[in-house]
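Appendix B.2, paired examples.
Example (i):
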Amino acid sequence: MKRLVIALAVLALAGCGGEAIVPEGQGAHGHGASSAAPPVPAASARFNDADVVFAQMMVDHLQLGVSLSQVALAKATKKEAKDLAGAIDATQREELSMLKSWLKLWGKPEDGGKDLHAAHGGQPLLDDKVISDTKDKSGAEFDLAFLNLMAGHQGAAVEMALAEKKDGSNPEAIAYAERVTTIRQGQISQMLKVISDQ
């Protein structure tokens, strides 16, 4: 059973499409993974289309992550799952505020439209229906569902960040993408460890 769940988590890491990203040997960041990282400086006015798409996709992504984290804070039974939900909620709220301010500075809308995720192979792993369905679970079943979904969700963030690092031009957006890669990979590693210990 554990192997099946871990396999599902690894498969879920493909997120919006592409290869699953599971870091080797990257353990928990101790309490660092459960506290918000310092904010990235306000973005400069220099940007390209890749920066805009990254910011818009991350706004959509972060809002869904916050929604799922809120459900987990109310329903998770494992302390590790609840702690991760709290860390993700705090960090992603801060990032949402930052990205929205960048898009406003650049004169771009927060919503990139219905085809925003097409470049990454389709719609994101999470949506309102998936989150609603997860609310119906309880106990260990909820914990596993949350950890699997959030691991895949954070894997999708790593994918988007890698694309930004490759194609973006805004230095602050690229620095944020680096931060996303590091933090999310640490969280994925933590979540897979909690799943394997079930």
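Example (ii):
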Amino acid sequence: MTLYQPFLDYAIDYMKSRSQLDSYPIPPGFESKEAITGKGKNQVTVTTTSYGFQTAKLRQIRAAHVQGGKALQVLNFVIFPHLNYDLPFFGADLVTLPGGHLIALDMQPLFRDEAKYQAKYTEPILPIFQSYEKDLPWGGDFPEEASQFFSPAFLWTRPSDTAIVENQVFAAFKDYLKAYFDFVESAEPVEDPQHLEAIEQAQLRYLRYRAEKDPARGMFKRFYGEEWTEEYIHGFLFNLERELLSIH
């Protein structure tokens, strides 16, 4: 069972159709990692595979795909724009555990409280969000501190039926990705120094929060140990700080 492989395959093919997609370096030891978990009949191999791409406007497009059979299926797919664009992040967290599915899909804004920014990047995608609300209702409690990083078009849902993931969630994923690349296509580089500084700080704020609160940390530590996990989080998944340090 590889529930999210079609999502990943689609995303890679679609991005290639919209942009010149180059590879993004994945640090040694993170391309693929395996662990055995569970006992007896419940023993499964959990494999984590990493993917990295970049384009002229997008600094890092990366995916972590965790496959553990019926026990665990996860796709974390995030796009980080270059710092001279005011584009939002694209984020898809698709998680399947024995207890059900957890789906989070959004274009996370750099400046959530600015009306001009919302008009540019959130309002155009609200109709997409609204078209899925009936089939993919709000998934309930979400950490209050996290809400500052999500847009009003944040699709957070807990479908009980795998068929809903394979159909409606997949359709929403495609629609959000297309809308995101429409934004990317029309994005113009920012030249104002103050705005550039604000973009860098907004990106760092988001990445620091995500690195600190990464919900996958406990899972990765259990499978692969603390050292590998922390390096994976800071050196690949949320690596902007490292990248900036290497430049300056």
